[in-house]
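Suppose you are handed only these lines of text.
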Amino acid sequence: MKSKKALTLGLGLLVISLLALALFFYQSKNKALLRVDALSKNLGHVEEGKDLVADFTFFNDGLKPLRIFDVKSDCGCTDLSWKTAEIPPGKSSRLTVHIDTTMKQGAVTKQIRFASNDPDFSFGALNMQVDVENLHTAGNMTEGGRAKIFTDEKCAHCHVDMGVGAFGKELFEADCAMCHRVQKESKILVGPELEALSFNTPAQIARLREVISFGSKTHRSMPGFLDKAGGPLAKEQVDSLVDYLKSIKH
Ligand code: HEC
Ligand code: HEC
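From them, the structure of the protein bound to heme C can be written out as follows.
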């Protein structure tokens, strides 16, 4: 008798715990339940100038509609095909991200942030890593490097193309700033910070024009920019750079 009672009690407890478990599962799913296929993607090693595409798949594992909103990237170069998405229960949706590697070199990290109505995943971040080929390697930077910077298409892309048809400050920013201003990301400063210097005397101005036109006699990283010296700039463009650097008030 005693054992029968115990059995009934045992069965009762089992049923109750099963019900509790079912309720627990139901409740944990009775919401929008976000799952992303990966929170981080490594896009590998690429050449500069390549447009890369990365996909992230958002799944709704819950029983209520999932909403993704406020999708933002940390730079203009990632173009987002959707800003918000509604994903029904049991369905998924794909976010495609384009990464433009133009003018980039070395390790590049991009981040996308978003918000969702999954109470346990209200904010999220997706990371992408790209290793853009750095052309400043030993092989490229030998004696020939000086000529190559203007003639090799790959180098010209960063060192010449942006300055075509430009004058003054705009031209400085396109062709000179990469070596004469502290770089934002790498903190590298290759040559003197020209915009912080004063060029007043005729001798200083003459030397300015000379180095821009024909390059530095002591440093191979400063090539001559004048067309007659094998560079990409017309005399008027060199003059506009001299005028710009002269005109900066300190
Ligand atoms: C992705 C754009 C980009 C490409 C492509 C590129 N450069 Fe550069 N280069 C830069 C930037 C930016 C700097 C400034 C220093 C830095 O950030 O590394 C620089 C600096 C330099 C320097 C001075 C630094 C030093 O170590 O002496 C030389 C010389 C140079 N580049 C030559 C070249 C040559 C040659 C090529 C082609 C083989 C090339 N660059 C391709 C962007 C580029
Ligand atoms: C690839 C890197 C690089 C680029 C691009 C570059 N420079 Fe230079 N520049 C240098 C380096 C390095 C020096 C230092 C040379 C030396 O020590 O003799 C220098 C020196 C100079 C000097 C002499 C400064 C002084 O007082 O000794 C002037 C002027 C100058 N650059 C102007 C320019 C202008 C204008 C541009 C754009 C058209 C430009 N440079 C583009 C690397 C560069």
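What can we learn from it? The radius of gyration is 30 Å. The pocket of heme C (ligand 2) is lined by residues 159, 175-176, 178-180, 190-192, 194, 208, 211-212, 216, 218-219, 221-222, 225, 241 (CB under 6 Å).
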